[in-house]
Specification:
Number of domains: 2
Strand content: 15-25%
Order of helices and strands: EHEHEHEHHEHEHEHEHHEEEEEE
Strand order of the largest sheet: 5-4-3-2-1-8
CATH class of the largest domain: Alpha Beta
Number of strands: 14
CATH superfamily of the largest domain: Glycosidases
CATH topology of the largest domain: TIM Barrel
Structural class: alpha/beta
Radius of gyration: 21 Å
Number of helices: 10
Shape: globular
Length: 415
Amino acid sequence: MFALPDDVLTGMLADTWWFALTQRLPDEAFQALVERRVKQGFTAVQLVVGIPPEVGPEHDSASSPVGPAWTLTGMFNDQYLAFARQRIQYLNQQGLRVIVYGAWGHQIEWLGLDGMLGWWHRIIATLDDLDVIYCLTGESNLWLSGEAAHLLPDKTTADFPVNQLREWVGKLPYRLQDLLIRGMQRAKRPFAEQKQSERRQLWSQVLAEVRQLTERPFIIHTLPQETSETVVDNPQLLAAITTQTGHSETMRAQLWQRPLAADKPFINLEPWYEGILGGFGPADQLYAYWVSMLAGSQSYCYGAHGIWNVGDGDFLAQWGGQTFFEAMALDTPRLLALSHQQYLASGCQAGQTFYETSENQLLTIGRRSAERLVQFFPDVGRVTAVPDGQIWLPFQGCWTDSLPAKGPVVFFGRR
């Protein structure tokens, strides 16, 4: 068995490839993506061993080259598991640890408790000797009002009636839109609260059993408004506090406030994806990295629209039109990896966080160890005093001797 280090959750720079085991990502493109991320400096990958998000189990994009992971009748595909092992073993050989997601939250209602337990038994039996971390499920409380039924058996979220309704509602006056949306939410709330309790109990049962099968750490992926501490009844079995902050500008402060509030190892498994909804470009990506890590995150998870879905401009295009090859050409991952290397070399990971805000805007955030300091300024032009130290320009991925008039800057110095 591959022996994981004690600090397995610390210092990873992970990319997000939800559809990496499907036929959407053929061998040549898979190997090219692996080579690119390794060369850039990434050390981990998130992927789904099972049915990926946003598709029904019989959709072509849910299938690997040897078929889907399982069927709605509860039949598991041993060829799929062998294929998953082959790809994950290759990732390990290239130096990439794999965060293995076994399902998406709503799928426990498709397979049932016994079926999900059986699937996780198969995953662990197939992969446990490799360099893996297990994620119990993605978005554990997704679609509590029965929306997942619209995916069955072979649809995608692009086919959801809600998307058609949203298009129709979007033509109405704003005040009427708001009234309709609030009314629908109120009508669903009692049912959703009951379903949330049932969903939490189901995933808690799965976690309790599968945690006994392996010494590998388990984590769980949540909706943006939640953290792992609230979505299962037994969070003490999880190796870290985890969350996703999702893809909204309104979550900007949560990128640093959530890790700052955590009382055990913390990882944001899904901050802003680059290019999703046509936004969240390099400036947002580098901001998210520095504020997350300096607030105390153990590791960082990057994602790019077009990569996570192996996009072609049409598949799941309600999230944006950026394609796989356009996302592959982005330079941001290289810049993130360069920043990550400098941060790890600083020796400040075990230090204390400090920050300053003005009018709800983050002016600076930093981390101090006994001897060293790392301090990030989202816009150095907004502050009047800066520390002594080496100046790192995250947009350029290089050091400089002269302080720019504005823009993001990181200082590395001694206390």
